[in-house]
């Protein structure tokens, strides 16, 4: 009889362990509570997480928040996921950066979480669907869908009788006119890493170019790409400070806030800091406009889809999923939209709140998202995006554009052939 009792206890313990580890069947977090460890990027994401703290406390969840600037964040995220360090339970970041990890089964499926939160694929922007859904299931739950916009000093524009530009050529002309001494007319992130490529992508697409053709042959040295690169580089050479060659998003934002920059191309989410009078010297004198057109009245801004992921190495999967559920709830989306922090992944919510504040960065970004694109969301992007960023930085430092783009195109062709996406030439 005793051996039956022992067998029953073993079976019961096994069921308990399996139940706790089975991320597809979560149970409520206990009254004793849990602390989840979160990794994210400084800026607008901090404000969003802070807004959830009361609701999380009601669910007995505390958050150990770890926010870093881009380069540090990316290194920590990749290290944690690749090496299963069990350091973080939740990671907030650009969904495109984690495609390979999702494909390699490094992330917990969040399909059940999306279902409980009422998030439906058909309600998202079409571009968002491509980035967050793998095999018809959510692995990266979107909470922001930001776009690059034109940000400018309303006082300087008014003083010089200027209005926001309609074309890239006009944008360059205004930037050059407002550049004098230690005052600069136009800049954007142009460091050697990945931060430069979203801005360059906007130039590329707006001039009619693309990354690849339909068979995955790279087009980085096409005529359109060369035109876009020269326009991109000319602005940085004639309208921006020398330090721009090392800038990421945070450096561009900080320089603009000092009052020494008349305009910039940046993500709309930066307005969260730009509107803070305690941090921004020129708060209250900032305007927002859509990005100007390239060839043929064409403007295609870059977009970035920010999502929340749970690594399989998470030590608190149940609490992590509860956090995700709150983050992507309609109530959270409504709260973010109401604050005009940055657009949500739901066009229906964005359009409603944008109509109430038509001149806000939120409204401009919402308008831009209808025509925005995201850089290729394939695993190989982790390799070829930094290659393009380095090439752009080399050109800014004096390398010949055509030769540099030719060499870059060959590098990317080799990457695509090595991955098997592009067949090798016989």
Tell me what the structure shows.
α6 (111-117) crosses α14, α10 packs across α11 (223-239) and α18 runs antiparallel to α19 (401-419). The chain is globular, with a radius of gyration of 23 Å. By secondary structure, the protein is α+β, with helices and mostly antiparallel strands. It starts with a helix and ends in a 7-residue tail after the last helix. Helix content is 46%, strand content 13%. It has two domains: 28-146 and 304-366, D-Maltodextrin-Binding Protein, domain 2, CATH 3.40.190; 147-303 and 375-419, D-Maltodextrin-Binding Protein, domain 2, CATH 3.40.190.10. It has helices at residues 2-21, 44-51, 53-58, 70-82, 99-103, 111-117, 126-132, 154-159, 168-177, 197-206, 223-239, 249-257, 271-274, 317-327, 330-339, 347-356, 361-369, 381-396, 401-419, and strands at residues 34-41, 61-68, 90-94, 133-134, 137-138, 141-153, 263-267, 286-289, 303-309. The protein is built from 19 helices and nine strands. The strands form two sheets. Strands 1, 2, 3, 6, 7, 8 and 9 form a seven-stranded mixed beta sheet that branches. A two-stranded antiparallel sheet has the order 4-5.
């Amino acid at each position: 009889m005793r051996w039956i009792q022992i067998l029953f206890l073993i079976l019961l313990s096994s069921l308990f362990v399996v139940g706790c580890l089975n991320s597809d069947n979560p149970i409520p977090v206990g009254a004793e509570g849990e602390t989840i460890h979160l990794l994210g990027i400084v800026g607008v994401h901090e404000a969003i997480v802070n807004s959830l703290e009361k609701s999380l406390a009601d669910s007995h969840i505390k958050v150990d928040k770890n926010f870093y600037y881009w380069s540090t964040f990316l290194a920590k995220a990749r290290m944690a996921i690749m090496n299963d360090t069990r350091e973080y339970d939740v990671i907030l970041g650009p969904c495109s950066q984690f495609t390979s990890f999702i494909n390699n089964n490094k992330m917990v499926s969040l399909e059940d979480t999306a279902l409980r939160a009422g998030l439906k694929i058909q309600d998202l922007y079409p571009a968002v669907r491509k980035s967050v859904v793998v095999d018809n299931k959510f692995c990266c739950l979107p909470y922001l869908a930001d776009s690059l916009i034109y940000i400018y000093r309303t006082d300087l524009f008014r003083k010089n009788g200027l209005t926001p530009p309609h074309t890239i050529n006009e944008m360059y002309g205004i930037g050059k006119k407002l550049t004098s001494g230690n005052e600069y007319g136009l800049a954007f992130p142009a460091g050697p890493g990945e931060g430069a490529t979203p801005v360059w992508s906007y130039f590329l697409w707006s001039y009619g170019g693309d990354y690849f053709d339909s068979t995955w042959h790279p087009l980085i040295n096409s005529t359109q790409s060369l035109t876009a690169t020269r326009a991109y580089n000319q602005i940085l050479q004639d309208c921006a400070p020398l330090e721009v060659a090392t800038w990421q998003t945070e450096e561009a934002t900080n320089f603009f806030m000092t009052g020494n920059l008349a305009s910039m191309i940046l993500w709309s989410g930066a307005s969260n800091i730009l509107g803070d009078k305690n941090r921004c010297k020129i708060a209250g004198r900032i305007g927002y406009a859509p990005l100007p057109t390239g060839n043929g009245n064409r403007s295609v801004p870059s977009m970035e889809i920010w999502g929340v992921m749970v690594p399989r190495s998470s030590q608190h999967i149940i609490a992590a999923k509860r956090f995700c559920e709150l983050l992507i709830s309609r109530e959270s989306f409504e709260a973010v939209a109401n604050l005009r922090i940055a657009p949500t992944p739901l066009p229906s919510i964005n359009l409603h709140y944008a109509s109430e504040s038509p001149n806000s960065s939120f409204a401009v970004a919402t308008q831009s998202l209808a025509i925005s694109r995201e850089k290729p969301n394939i695993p190989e992007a982790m390799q070829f995006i930094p290659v393009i960023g380095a090439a752009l930085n080399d050109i800014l430092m004096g390398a010949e554009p055509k030769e540099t783009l030719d060499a870059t195109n060959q590098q990317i062709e080799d990457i695509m052939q090595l991955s098997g996406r592009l067949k090798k030439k016989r």
